[in-house]
């Protein structure tokens, strides 16, 4: 049974508006443009009360941390009291950050990046490395439910350290693992990259299933469109992924055994 995820009932919110200090080479703040700025959230919810959950995200500071001031956290706590489920897309964290977040997130989404080249040259975190990402993940995993994400092809389309991330997770045995795929965007150095081949992705996913046989695999919202998406989504269906976010219409049309979930897949 593969679940079709259409996250129309989750509102993505940016605590920094469209600003990100890092300006990662693959993104340049692109994904922030489709999020509701935190300062406009209250009026947004007054106009549309169909949302059941909220993704708390935003641009990171120069240390790779999502800047959550006390004032912002107070506003977010109100959402919790109103009954919204909260999924935090946190970057790197410290024990001090964790104390402030106690009892607030229902879920934490974390990008597990173990490629030092990507961290320093793509994410522009010059003074960070894979150990910082491992440490943050372990701290979060001790304190909250965590949905690890692995970005396939972040090294200009090459698949390399993704295998190392899988081996790291093998010791932790997460309940779920969400894969996303690098997507060429205009006005970035990734615009004309060669995407990971379907064969490379298949090898990675089969490796994952061997290493994490009890982990539910999800195909997340970020991935290229068109024929590439059709092929990737078909592969995920063939490999019995538990969920596919916004699947290619022709893939689901050919499947007779699907359910629908209308919030962020990390909350599934």
TrEMBL record:
Lineage top rank: taxon: Bacteria
Higher taxonomy: Bacteria, Pseudomonadati, Dictyoglomota, Dictyoglomia, Dictyoglomales
Protein name: Radical SAM protein
A molecular function GO annotation: catalytic activity
Domain Elp3/MiaA/NifB-like radical SAM core, chain residue ranges per copy: 10-209
InterPro entries: Elp3/MiaA/NifB-like_rSAM, rSAM, rSAM_sf
